[in-house]
Amino acid sequence: MRKPQKAAGKKKKAQKAPAAAAAGARSGPGGSSSMDTDPGDAGAPSVWRPGLDPVGEDEELDYDPTAYDCLHRFNLEWPCLSFDMLRDDLGAPRAAFPHTVFMVAGTQAAQARQNHIAVLKLAALGQGRHGKRDGKRRRGGGDDDESSSDESSSGSEGGSDSEMDASDDEDDREPPARMHYRLVQQNSGVNRIRAMPQRPGVLAVWNDNRQVRILDVSAQLAELAAEEQLPAAKPQKVTLNPLASHTHSMEGFALGWSPVKAGRLASGDCKRHLHVWEPAEGGGWAVSGVYNGHEDSVEDIAWSHTEETVFASCGVDKTVRIWDTRERGRSMLSVAAHDCDVNVIGWNALVTYMLASGGDDGSLRIWDLRAFKDGGFVSHFAFHKGAVTSVEWSPYESSMLATSGADNSLAVWDLALERDPEEEEALAPEGNAVPQEELPAQLLFVHAGQADIKELHWHAQIPGMIGSTAGDGFNLFRPSNL
């Protein structure tokens, strides 16, 4: 049974009211991003489909603020291809606003020496006009105040210039969101960055100079955790000596820590070379020889959540492979997963035989590893109209995962959902959008408004919270129907 939902955002004439700064929408039954009718149309709205439905020259997309419990935007000085959410000591699961979130991100600057790793604390993340507060909508959440803007927007200087809408009660005003940060000097761009699950201050960094480095930013995280107010002076970049490093024969993107064995890491490059890093007694890491199997660039890596020696990889050779660290000569299992490059994979932590893969053609496939060698996928979705750039399973809902694509959209899927025409008809009077038949019933939510989305992550301790990075900055949001 699909969860009850209200209509998504709406397409409106640009001259009537400015669109919100970040687009996105809760789907109607069947999934969507926005409604396909003008506000004054009397007929039932329909779902607007990214990449398919046109937007007129005099129109721009808006969104329904009730689609989100919160929505925040922030930027660093330079775009980031990759980031990671960090586990913290604030408890889990937690739902009460305001939230505090710790992250790390690596930049792609115009010049090599301008790059850095940003260690971030995003504090006082409220709801703005999204969701409900003490049983009342925040000001700006209704259709009568479409021009107000409520997203938190934090600048690269570490301060926050956000202006959160006040509630109807003057004493109920939220403080502005704050971005605390520390910067670690990098002399090359960051292709991918991952934090060790067991020690969030230890980072693996894939640089575009062919080098993978392991850094410890625990001291910077401790400073941020203790920092209550934004400092008066801009923090300076620091230089950290790596705990370990390895230079591949070509640059790459595939990188992943084992969630089972602390310190075990795998990295893969664009010359099909795949290595496993083992923590050594007394410190440091030992890097293995090449794991042989892929015939072209290794694009992504995902580890098993139950077996410490097992991981998966995918690549330009169109395959997904399952490896055991004790066998370098060949993969244990391999399947021709897509008819194109396989860009990304994700391993379900709650149903450990489920794997997801995303292709260069925009397709998403779900695999049951118990029947993996037979080459049959459980589900196939062709929603994205551009290459799938990221895929990750929810840490709280075993049937839920999220994907992002080069079509500038981020989709949340619930594989347990089925279409119920009677429910859709019953919910129509409440303003729910009418889904097109071709939209998958499992499509639960679509977030848009970012250009060139590269990566997404769920927050492991705040159920439903999702972060995404794109060419124009970061979004941090929680859909209200999760």
Key features of this structure:
mainly beta; 36 strands; globular; Methylamine Dehydrogenase, Chain H; 5-stranded mixed β-sheet
Number of strands: 36
Q: How many structural domains?
A: 1
Distinct helical segment count: 2
How does CATH name the architecture? 7 Propeller
Family: Belongs to the WD repeat RBAP46/RBAP48/MSI1 family.
GO biological process, one term: ribosome biogenesis
Domain Histone-binding protein RBBP4-like N-terminal: 58-123
Protein name: Glutamate-rich WD repeat-containing protein 1
Summed up:
With 482 residues, this protein is mostly beta strands. 3% of the residues lie in helices and 38% in strands. The chain has a 5-stranded antiparallel sheet, with no helix packed on it. Strands 12-6-36-35-34 form a 5-stranded mixed sheet, with no helix packed on it.
Descriptive account of the structure:
Belongs to the WD repeat RBAP46/RBAP48/MSI1 family. The structure is a single chain. The chain has 482 residues and is mostly beta strands. The protein has a single domain (9-479), classed as Methylamine Dehydrogenase, Chain H (7 Propeller). Helices cover 3% and strands 38% of the residues. The protein has 2 helices and 36 strands. The chain has a 5-stranded antiparallel β-sheet, with no helix packed on it. It has a 5-stranded mixed β-sheet with strand order 12-6-36-35-34, with no helix packed on it. It has a 4-stranded mixed β-sheet with strand order 4-3-1-5, with no helix packed on it.
